Amino acid sequence: MRRSQLALLLPSLLVLAACGTAPEQRTAPAPVVPVVSVAKQAEANLAPASASIVSGRLVLVPDARGVHITGTIGGLQPLQTAAFHVHERGDCSAVDASSAGPHFNPANQPHGRNSAGAHHAGDMDNLRADAQGRVSVDVRLPAVTLGGGAATDIVGRALVVHANADDYRSQPAGNAGARIACGVIRATR
């Protein structure tokens, strides 16, 4: 091939090569759906389960990202680390609180840690009791709502304290052990 032929052919090849390159695909970020609560406040009165003496009272208030849970739980062993979750059903009638069902998981996610990665909507970080077996609860649960009946609504569900720490890995519930306290979340305002 002569240089003159190559000079004529080269621009054509460049045009063809450019046509064969797919344009860069950009995916728009998923829209942020605001978390909206209808109830202004809810409470859960935890009662002992599985022959424990663990009990407490928790107040739930919506905030900008979800729900803020505060209150006190007592009756734990001194310095005990215990798992804490929202469970699917607001039924604490079984002696072992099994009537509360599995963890609240409307998005069908794997079990994990609330503060990192994929997790159930009802997964929360472990509680740590003080030397007297009490916990001052101050937890933020993101992406859930209080009242209104949305898939993310936790009113009418149960808060459960477990005997062991959540390992945040084992499926489907973090190997957290027996349910030692249970309380139904009820809207108060």
From TrEMBL:
Domain (Superoxide dismutase copper/zinc binding): residue spans on this chain: 56-185
Requisite cofactors: Cu cation; Zn(2+)
Region (Disordered): 95-123
UniProt keyword Metal-binding present: yes
Catalytic activity, as annotated: 2 superoxide + 2 H(+) = H2O2 + O2
Cofactor detail note: Binds 1 copper ion per subunit.
UniProt keyword list: Copper, Metal-binding, Oxidoreductase, Signal, Zinc
EC id: 1.15.1.1
First and last residue of the signal peptide: 1-17
InterPro entries linked to this entry: SOD-like_Cu/Zn_dom_sf, SOD_Cu/Zn_/chaperone, SOD_Cu/Zn_BS, SOD_Cu_Zn_dom
Protein origin, superkingdom: Bacteria
Family matches, as PROSITE patterns: PROKAR_LIPOPROTEIN (PS51257), SOD_CU_ZN_1 (PS00087), SOD_CU_ZN_2 (PS00332)
PANTHER family associated with the record: SUPEROXIDE DISMUTASE CU-ZN -RELATED (PTHR10003)
Function description: Destroys radicals which are normally produced within the cells and which are toxic to biological systems.
Recorded family membership: Belongs to the Cu-Zn superoxide dismutase family.
Protein name: Superoxide dismutase [Cu-Zn]
